[in-house]
Amino acid sequence: MSLNALSRLDDLHSRFNLLRGLDDAVLKANGFDASLEELGSVITGLKSLSHTQSQLSSLHGALELLLILLDVAHARNLSGDHLHCLLEPLRVKLDGALNELDSII
User: Fold this and answer.
1) Which domain does 39 fall in, by range?
2) What's the Cα-to-Cα distance from 4 to each of 9, 10, 15, 28, 70, rounded to whole Å?
3) Are residues 30 and 66 in the same domain?
């Protein structure tokens, strides 16, 4: 079974966790437990990307639908205000997804 990078990273973290607290001079000298905590924190941040992925997927679908609607309405006069009302919520959602990415990356 093929796992994505985040699942593999989480699995490695679980295996390294077995070494936590060992009375080993090399591990202690290299701050192994602290590094393990930091790795856990990074994994938690990366897991929140699934919400961002969901938002971006939703936006993609909404933009595809909007393009279909515009294509169907190509012979009609369109109001800028109407387009603004359609696009503004998408822009807000995109801004939110980008802010989530910025906080993680």
Assistant:
1) 5-47
2) 9, 10, 17, 31, 37
3) no
